[in-house]
């Protein structure tokens, strides 16, 4: 079920089959508004219990749904739930649209628009101090990070632990993204539990996914960097992903264009190869019966 659900989710995401209202961030925003109705959430003055409930409730609902339909109609209803959850977790048209706008702005030579759309793509990355020559590489690293955060990690959790774990990861990521966006204007804003849980959830998947860059890129240089970061407990998931990806490819020198797209496209290609490798490994594990 895991591989079939993953393939259906990828197909739905590529074909944009799910409307925006059915994508994970939209559904989670709807639930968030009801959980925190009447609370001053944006000041950070919310109870720890409510935040923990918000983080765990979506995964709990999925667990209950799967438990209720287990065995119904020879397992077809369970399969439908798996596929639906996977499709919801993998649909992220907002990120795709932001990247498309960035590429279009770069092709026009509109530097200011490039900075704006790059910030929309990855609000956790500080781009203000980055020169136009370095922007292409910085966005390429953001693409590698987003590919892991929105696709790779979700796929790993879906394959290994099922839809409940995938939804839990997506929920914690949702609040992490929201927290970082609010920290742009309110530096002291911080939600309880979010950073700690996400650090735990990212620890192993980030190292596994980064090793895929080693296998799909320049092995020697990428492996040296991966080894140094992966066995360092203080290395962040973002650092492992972006630095391993950068070492795994030969980054072209900046061109004469106002914003050079070559580093971005090179790292985008690497990210695509890495995800194909993940699908191939999932297929082999399914064939040999290691995952169901």
From TrEMBL:
Alphabetic keyword roster: Membrane, Transmembrane, Transmembrane helix
Pfam families reported for this sequence: AmpE
TM region(s), chain numbering: 49-66, 73-93, 150-172, 275-291
InterPro entries reported in the protein's UniProt record: AmpE (IPR031347), Beta-lactamase_Reg (IPR052966)
Gene Ontology BP terms: response to antibiotic
Cellular component terms per the entry's GO annotation: plasma membrane
Lineage: superkingdom: Bacteria
PANTHER family the UniProt entry points to: PROTEIN AMPE (PTHR38684)
Protein name (Swiss-Prot/TrEMBL): Beta-lactamase regulator AmpE
Lineage: Bacteria, Pseudomonadati, Pseudomonadota, Gammaproteobacteria, Alteromonadales
């Amino acid at each position: 079920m895991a591989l079939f659900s993953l393939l259906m989710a990828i197909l739905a995401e590529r074909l944009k089959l799910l409307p925006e209202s059915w994508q994970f961030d939209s559904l989670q925003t709807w639930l968030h508004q009801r959980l925190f109705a009447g609370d001053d959430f944006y000041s950070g003055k919310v109870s720890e219990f409510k935040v923990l409930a918000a983080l765990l409730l979506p995964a709990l609902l999925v667990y209950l749904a799967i438990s209720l339909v287990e065995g119904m109609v020879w397992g077809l209803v369970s399969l439908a739930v798996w596929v639906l959850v996977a499709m919801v977790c993998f649909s992220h048209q907002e990120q795709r649209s932001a990247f498309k706008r960035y590429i279009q702005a770069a092709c026009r030579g509109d530097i200011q628009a490039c900075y704006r759309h790059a910030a929309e793509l990855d609000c956790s990355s500080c781009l203000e101090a980055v020169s136009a020559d370095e922007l292409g590489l910085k966005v390429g690293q953001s693409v590698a990070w987003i590919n892991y955060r929105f696709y790779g990690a979700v796929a790993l959790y879906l394959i290994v632990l099922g839809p409940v774990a995938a939804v839990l990861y997506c929920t914690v990521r949702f609040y992490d993204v929201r927290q970082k966006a609010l920290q742009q204007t309110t530096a002291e804003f911080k939600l309880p539990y979010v950073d700690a849980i996400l650090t735990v959830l990212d620890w192993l998947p980030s190292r596994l996914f980064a090793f895929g860059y080693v296998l799909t890129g320049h092995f020697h240089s990428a492996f040296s960097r991966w080894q140094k970061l992966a066995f360092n407990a203080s290395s962040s998931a973002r650092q492992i992903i972006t630095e391993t990806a950068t070492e795994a490819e030969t980054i072209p020198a900046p061109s004469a264009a106002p914003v050079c797209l070559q580093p971005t496209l090179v790292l985008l290609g690497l990210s695509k190869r890495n995800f194909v490798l993940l699908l191939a490994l999932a297929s082999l594990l399914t064939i040999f019966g290691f995952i169901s």
